[in-house]
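Issue: ligand-bound run for protoporphyrin IX containing FE - logging full I/O for the record.

Environment: standard queue, default settings, no custom constraints.

Inputs:
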Amino acid sequence: MSATAHQSATCPFDASRDDRKSARLAAERVAPEPGAKVVTSFAAAREILRNAAIKQGGAGADLIDTGDPERVPVFYLDGEAHKRKRSELARFFTPKIIATRYRAVMENTADALLAEFRAKGQAPLDEISFALAVAVAADIVGLKNSNPVGMAARIKATLADLGGHRRNVLARLFGRLRQSYHGLEFYFRDVRPAITARRKNRQVDIISHLIDEGYSDKAILIECMTYAAAGMVTTREFIVMAAWHLFGRQDLRERFLAGDEDEQLAILQEILRLEPIAALLHRRVPEITPIASGAPIPAGSLMAIDIRAANTDEAATGPCPYALDPERAARMKVNASFLSFGDGNHRCPGAQVALAETRVFLDRLMRVPGIRLAREPTMGWCAALMSYELRDAIVVCDRL
Ligand code: HEM
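Outputs:
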C-alpha cells in the first residue's frame, strides 16, 4: 500500500487537510539562532527538553549573568538553582489555588469584560483577551495596587519598546528597562506601589515571596516583566487564536459549548498543538550527550527545538497531523498540548492557568447572544518572541 493510501485509510479526515492558520507565516518567519541545530522530531525534542544536564539556551540566556542565582528569573536558571526556585514557585501554581483563587479572578474579570462588551455591542478581541491575561497573571504576581486598565497599557508599551530585534529579547529588555520610559512608568505606577504595600503586609503572591527572599526592587521589576512576557502576552495570543478557530467552525463551536470541562480542554489543547505560540526553544548542550533518538550531541551544541515540527511529527500525532482532532491526544496517549508548553524542567508552570482562563473566557464569550466575529484578526509576527501576533479582530453581539 502506498504511503498516501495508507494514510487515507487510517486518517479520519481528508488526508490533505490542514487546519493551521499560522503555519504559512511561521514557515516564512521562524529563524533559529545562528549555528543552532534544528530538532524536528517529537521524540528527540522531548528527550532533549527532559535532559537535566542540557541548559537553557534561549532569549539571550548566554548573556545573563547567573552568578547570583537568587536574583535571576527562573527562565534562565539551570540545575540545582533552577530546581530550588521552581519548588519555591510551585505553591503559586497548585491545582487547588488555580481552581479556587485564580478561578474567581478569571470568572469575575471575564464577566466584567463581557458586560462592558454587551453594553457596547462590539469589542477588540485582543484587547479584552489581554485585559483578562493581565488580571490573572497580576493576581499571581501580586501586582494589585494600581489601575489594571492603565497597567495593561503600560505593560504593552514596555514590551513594544523591545522593537523588532529577534535575539536576546529578555536580556536586552532587562538591560534597557531603566532607560525605557514605559518601563519606568510600569515600575513607578504598578510595581513599586505593590512592593510598598507588601513590605508592610505580605500576601500569598510572588512579589511577597521575592521580598522575603531579599530581592531588590529592580530584581522584582525584572521578575514582573518576565511574567508579563511569559504569561500575559502568550495567553492573549492563545485566546484570540482559539476564538478564531471556534468562530470559523460551527461544528467545533457547538462541540465546545456542549462539552464538559475535559472536552473543552481537549479542543483548546489541540488548537494549541497546531498553533504553538512559542515556535522555538533553544538549548545549550555543555557536554557530549548520547540520546536514544539519534546520534550523540557534540559538546557545545546549540539546539533549536522546532515546536511546530515536533507537534506535527506523525510518529507522535498519528495520521493527519495538520487536522484539528480533539480525540488525537487520548488516542495517541500523549500530553494533549504536545510540546506547546515545553517539557522537562522548564515546562511552563502557568500551563494550567492559561488553559483554565482561556476555557472560562471562551465558554462565556461564545454564549453571548448574537456573538460573531465581525472582523478576523490580522496576523503579524513578533520576531523578538518568535511568535505570531493576532491583532484587530472585532467581535460583535446584540446590545443589552
Ligand atoms: C498559552 C499561554 C502560554 C504558553 C503557550 C506558554 C509557553 C511556555 C513555554 C513553551 C515555556 C518553556 C520555555 C522553555 O522551556 O525554554 C514556558 C515557560 C514559562 N512560563 Fe509559560 N506559557 C503560557 C502561559 C504562562 C502563564 C499564564 C504563566 C504565569 C502566569 C507562565 C509562566 C511561565 C514561566 C515563569 C516560565 C519559565 C519556567 C522555567 O523556565 O522554569 N506561562 N511557557
